[in-house]
Amino acid sequence: MRWSDLNLGCPLTSARDGHYGAYLLGQKDWPLVENIVSGLTHALPVPISTKIRLCNPVKHTLPFAERLVLAGSSWIALHARSGASTRKRRHGPANLSQVKLLKECLQVPVISNGNVRTYGDVLQNLEFTRADGVMVGETLLGNPCLFAGATPDPVQISLEYLEICKQCPEGSVDLEAAKKHVKHFVDFQCSRRTWISKFIRALTACRTIEEVDKLLRVKTQRWRGKSPLPRDAVDVEEDSEGEKISGDGYDDLALLV
Ligand SMILES: Cc1cc2nc3c(=O)[nH]c(=O)nc-3n(C[C@H](O)[C@H](O)[C@H](O)COP(=O)(O)O)c2cc1C
Question: Origin, by domain of life (predicted)?
């Protein structure tokens, strides 16, 4: 399905300076945002959605969302944290009761965002908010299999990711971005391992995708007390004991590595 999303969630200072993202949530900018949404609704052949954060004060969130719907927003995604703090923009609990309120009051689908670390959180979130969907940011960086209810072996998922990178047209993969993804996959489950800083240093030093691949298959496996993996050993479905992996909490994850 194709649609166009208006992002009113970005809290970065660049958004403040450019007057966009979460810096359009204030009441004085509501008419401007309404004009943007209705303008897009009339100009584009696809539905328009909006992603917002909590307004300041929080009680303004529902009336703002109602105005977005009247202006033509086909659904609303709420990251239920305030946009006010740029320093701790994803920290602290999300106020999911505001998602629940939007879901109770709006006539369009509502997507809930915030507080998801495990698949169990996805289910709890949906049960509590009754939202039509859940959006996840940070946790998916570490565990891209979250919505499948699985927690893959971090080396295996990194190798699978690198295989995809290798299939991309030459020159189209940003090595530094690829390394960041691998760091997220490994750090998500292994951040407390004694070898993690050694791993990050070695990863930083890698100059090609092949070097990252080798670092994972050989040294990282050794640091984990596991056998090196052959070149074609990419299997995200199973861990090294051949069991299907699924986890629903950090305690479970810690046991896996
Ligand atoms: C790498 C990254 C980039 C993001 N970029 C944006 C963005 O451009 N606009 C936005 O509204 N939110 C952005 N977010 C926030 C997420 O969409 C999400 O609202 C936020 O991370 C809270 O969800 P989470 O607790 O599941 O991470 C970003 C998050 C991450 C991790």
Answer: Eukaryota
98-127 residue pLDDT tens:
999 999 999 999 999 999 999 999 999 999
CA 189 to chain CA mean position, Å? 16
Q: Is the pLDDT of residue 233 over 70?
A: no
Residue 149, both tokens: 């209810």
Q: Whose CA is nearest to atom 18 of ligand 1?
A: 137
Produce one character per residue of 154-183: b if its CB has 16 or more CB atoms within 10 Å, e if not.
Answer: bbbbbbbbbeebeeeeeeebeeeebbebbb
79-to-22, 161, 216, 240 alpha-carbon distances in Å: 11, 28, 35, 37
Q: How would residue 235 be classed by pLDDT, with cut points 50, 70 and 90?
A: low
Is pLDDT of 3 > 60?
Answer: yes
Candidates 33, 118, 116, 115; CA nearest to 76 is: 33
User: What's the alpha-carbon Rg for the chain, to the nearest Å?
Assistant: 21
Strand 48-54 versus strand 110-113 pairing type: unpaired
- How far is Cα 51 from Cα 11, in angstroms, rounded to an integer? 12
What is the best residue among 6, 8, 10, 184 to mutate for testing ligand 1's pocket, by most ligand atoms within 8 Å of CB? 10
Q: What are phi and psi of 173, to 5 degrees?
A: -100, 130
Spatial CA neighbour of 1 closest among 133, 97, 116, 104? 133
